[in-house]
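hey so u asked for the seq, here:
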Amino acid sequence: MAEEEVKLFGTWASPFSRRIEVALKLKGVKYEYIEENLTNKSPALLNYNPVHKQIPVLVHNGKPVAESFVIMEYVDETWKHNPILPTDPYERAMARFWAKYIDDKLWPAAKKVVVTKGEEQKGVIDEIQQQMKILEGELKEKKFFGGESLGFLDIAANIIIWLVVAQEALGMDQILNEEKLPVLHGWLQRLLDDAVFKECVPPKERHLDFSKVKFGSSIASK
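ran it, structure tokens below
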């Protein structure tokens, strides 16, 4: 059987392309990673994703798949060992539901909190903590959202790490603290200790420097 060609177009600071890296590594799939410059996108990226012109894009044997959740499901269905989504139809639907909740609710608030100041920022922090409290209700006493091992929703929730790094870089009040969000706080520590997930987290100092430049300049221009 001929070796499969798998390429991932992404950028190191994006939680969305990092999601795909986690999924591929959990499956043990060998792939070529192609770092994109989002200010000067390559012709290959524009060719493979002409609709959104964004990363991540997975190219499997010449066929492109775009959008992080779509790619994650494609990976799970193509390489069936070590399933990422639950096998139970209801649990699978719930994983998709909460992943969409993260991208539709938590991610917009996370982007907003890093470009606000003062009372407005405090209001957004309160909003994020309420959203996280709702997520805690889904995690309950499980080790991971996926149970005993990483699953679809754990990978989707990786944006929380990007939020934690941004708050540290900007000297913001701690959003994910153990007192207010003990269940999610414990989950994050276990996530960062996971060997596969740890491989797909950007180096902290580089990530901090990136966040200071990107979000610090955003605040200064307001």
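The longest helix spans residues 89-113. Residues 218-222 have pLDDT under 50 and may be disordered.
lmk if thats what u needed
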